[in-house]
Amino acid sequence: MPLSWIEQINLHLPGQRNKYPQKPIVLVGVGNLLMGDDAAGILVIHELMTGLPAGSTLVPIDAGPAPENFTGQIRQLHPGLVIFVDAGKMEEPPGTIRLVTCREAEGVSAFGHTLPLSVLGGYLESELDCDCLLLVIQPQVIEFDAQPTEKVLDAVKEISRFFLNLNQ
């Protein structure tokens, strides 16, 4: 049985903290609040922005539908790890969460982004000497003016709780 996304992150974080002890972990929420479940990544970031204490080593960034526009801000933070949070079609049940490396992300179809996150993550890894991961949530409804579905909102809460607890 494959490892859950939480088990994968928990395996990855100690190595990242040993490799980059003083560098922050940047969480980049990607998506569109007007497109139903495509809002998932942004909703995670909004939860973290209101729940993380000042000075946290976790830095949330709301990148909307164009994360490539935030490379300058990410660059200034000198992260050891960048985790993109986004809705993506994985042929899984709605609300399924999967953690993949940016190299593995080529099999995940994201919505409405001009630059694939696999390309952006590869760029950041080479330019900033950091690691990049993609936390993907399987959407149910991607339609203009739709509300996020309950299954995706449950996934948003699960991810938010994990990162808020990680910070304690």
In words, what does this structure look like?
The chain has 168 residues and is α/β, with parallel strands linked by helices. It has a single domain, classed as Rossmann fold (3-Layer(aba) Sandwich). The protein has five helices and six strands. Strand 1, helix 2 and strand 2 form a beta-alpha-beta unit. The longest helix has 17 residues.
Question: What is the 3D form?
Answer: globular
| Total discrete domains | 1
Tell me what portion of residues adopts beta-strand conformation. Answer: 15-25%
CATH level-four homologous superfamily name: HybD-like
Output the number of helix runs: 5
Q: What are the secondary-structure elements, in order, as H or E?
A: HEHEHEEEHEH
Level-2 CATH architecture: 3-Layer(aba) Sandwich
Please write the CATH class name: Alpha Beta
Distance separating the two termini: 30 Å
User: How much is the average pLDDT?
Assistant: 89
Q: Measured on Cα atoms, how large is the radius of gyration?
A: 15 Å
Helix content: 25-40%
Query: Total strand count, please?
Result: 6
- Judged by helices, strands and strand pairing, the structural class is alpha/beta
Report the biggest beta sheet as strand number plus sense, adding barrel if it closes.
6 strands, mixed
**Do you know the CATH topology?**
Rossmann fold
